[in-house]
Amino acid sequence: MMNQTEETKLLEQIEKWNDADEFSRCIEAIEAIPEQERGYLMTVKLSRAYSNLAVLGNHGVHGTDGEVDGDLIRHAIDLLESVRTQGENDPYWNSRMGYSCLMAYSSAATAYEYAKRWLSLAPDDPDAQELVRDCEKYLEEENSLELDWKEREEIIRRETIPPADDDILGHVKVHIDQYFGVYTQLLTDDSDPDHPLEIAVILPRPEHDYYTLVTVGLSRHRMDFSEERREEKLERAELLINLPRDWKLTKADCREEQWSWPIRMMLATAYFAMEDPEVGLESRTTLMEGEDGIPFAENTDLRGEILLYPGVFGEESFFCRLPGGEEVNFYQVIPLYWEELQYKLEHGSDSLLDLCPDESLEVINPHRLNVVTDREKISYDPAEMDNAADQIKKIQELHLPVDELDACNLMAFFLGWAMKRGQMSNPFISGYREIVEAVQSGKEPDLRVFILDNLDGKLSTQFFDRRGSGFAQWYAQDNRSNPYVYRRDCRNIVLAKLQDRVWNSATEEEAAYLLLPYTEKNRQSVEHLLDERFQQYLEAEFVDDPEERVARAAEGKPAVIPDWDGPLFCYASDRVAQDGCKVQIMDRLIPEREDMGWESGWAFYSGDEGDVYGEGDEYYELHCGFYDIRDICRIDPDIIPFLNLPYGTMQMRGEDGAWYEVIRDDEGEEET
Questions:
Q1: Do strands 663-664 and 670-671 pair parallel, antiparallel, or not at all (unpaired)?
Q2: Cα–Cα distance between 605 and 635 in angstroms, integer?
Q3: DSSP 328
Q4: For the chain: N or C, fewer Cβ within 10 A?
Q5: Separation of alpha carbons 256 and 275, rounded Å
Q6: Measured between alpha carbons, how far is 449 from 446 in angstroms, rounded to an integer?
């Protein structure tokens, strides 16, 4: 460990290197010190070196070109975050945060918060005064651009002439304006004279802070799909990509591979479908050139792609319905790493998408994390609804006038409502019976404290039963394509109450839900809102089984696992549940992680279903469904000893009445 004299000499040397624009030498010297020995000041100096390297480069190589290394600047911010407790009241820490955020984000809103904090701590510092003025200038420009954009959007829509019925591309353009944003430019690509294409360019806008580029012309060509799929109306399509706000799109920049490759990728996919009528593009289609693929550009290792419906723009954006009854499908082209594409081919699209949040693929990033090889870094849990740590960070960054306990307000409202409505999963009730009963009896404790102390500060869809879990996924997981979002609704409650408040930034206004106090009046208001939204969910989304799938063969039989603390639902055939046949085959598959609170993964069959009902998909649709696992155990108690076997387990009863494990080989074939 360095003594004080050594540290002073090193700090002096770091300042000399910094003044000489030798930022990498600063980084090497500080990172040579073990992380646990660096201390607060060295960590801040390290952050400064990274931010300067990101913006200026060694010896000022980026001093005039405006280039900013996003990864380095974000690392600089992470370093400052690691010493937030010591730095929040330090003018220097706030200055570094302000400068770094100004360079890292497309809006000056976050930087403005730190600039004001710096100025309040050092009111006579001219640099603090200048940063505040700069941020205010940028925010004023952003607001002017937003107002200008809204005016231009209104003018363009007002002057748009409705297309004729047979004008396919006219209808496509109207659809683009309506659902993706008003395009301000049409780029023409005539590299293939036989198949001309245009690209509609939509500028960054308040609700989607990035460029959206959409092809116009692919839909003139009908793709080939089998007669059996004709009703799906997949023959016509257009493609789109989303590019970051700082992506360079001038003619000169588009001659450079590092800026042109996403557009080239999208066009190549469109031409592939137009030049070969037998190519049929659809959602979940994956493409890659060659066996291992070739990276799209030198500055990225992305080398494949997947087509998905553009969920962030809402379901209505997926299809443009033409007057003659045909439809034009819109697919977002999302570039993939080789490992991601292979994972999709082996495990399916849903499994791949379950590895990462939707926003990680929403906008093209040449250096994004690989959702397969970097899954631990991403640490995405598709069942997570909310996390107190994320909300506390937002409270701190925006300096909101609330306690950190208020980060749990919305979670507590939702959890209390679900307990009162009887929507908790069996594992949750078994683990927290006293708290559930207290809430249901009207003796509601402070659920915020319960969430922090017992639930690790998180709310998960696994806490709820089948309907409750489905509702949570639909309404409370920030599904941007959904017409209703829990956090947004709560924000609107606050905005209605604080109509005269002047918000410091759009970011602060968006986080207004954190200002909803944890009071009885607000609890009742939110619960009324949840009742309304839940009813809308049941009417619009929830599909229940006929007759609630009552296992009539269990009627009159005694309970055999009254203390069962696992998920209540299992899958079973009517031969077992209705006719009372003994279970001959039991198979436990991995359910969706979001549904693990209510679905056990078990499926039970009598083994003669094919003889009774016939083979094919209709058998599963008509004669199988979800049942209460306790009822299936009442019908055949022999299955009880196996219920806690792991996912992937399959057991079959032999002619001797004994159970034998079924082993699946690599091809999925079964062996006993």
A1: antiparallel
A2: 12
A3: E
A4: N
A5: 26
A6: 6
- Which of 340, 392, 334, 391 is closest to 365 using CA atoms? 334
- Please state at what angle helix 520-540 crosses helix 466-475, rounded to 10 degrees: 100
| 316 CB-near residues (< 8 Å, 6+ apart) | 179
Whole-model pTM: value is 0.70
For residue 489, the surrounding DSSP H or E stretch is: helix 486-497
Bridge pairing between strands 210-216 and 197-202: antiparallel
The contacts of residue 470 (CB under 8 Å, 6+ apart) are 537, 541, 542
Q: Contact 384/391 with Cβ under 8 angstroms? A: no
Question: Which contiguous run of DSSP H or E holds residue 72?
Answer: helix 70-82
Identify the DSSP state of 240: E
Residues 6+ apart with CB under 8 A from 385: 411, 414, 458, 459, 460, 461, 472, 476, 477
Q: Nearest CA to 398 among 484, 508, 514?
A: 508
* pLDDT tens string 45-101: 999 999 999 888 887 665 554 567 877 888 899 899 889 989 989 999 999 999 998
Alpha carbon distance 92, 84 (integer Å): 12
Backbone angles phi, psi at 137, to 5 degrees: -65, -45
Q: Give the other-Cβ count within 10 Å of 583's Cβ.
A: 26
Residue 180 tokens read as: 């993706």
Convert the pLDDT of each residue in 213-239 to its tens digit: 999 999 999 999 988 898 999 999 999
β-pairing, 599-605 vs 569-573, is parallel
What is the C-alpha radius of gyration for the chain, rounded to an integer number of angstroms? Answer: 29
Nearest CA among 465, 493, 490 for reference residue 596: 465
CB-CB contact of 281 with 331 (8 Å): yes
243 vs 263: CA distance, rounded Å: 10
Residues with Cβ within 8 Å of residue 590, at least 6 apart in sequence: 601, 647, 648
Cα–Cα nearest to 211, from 219, 200, 203: 203
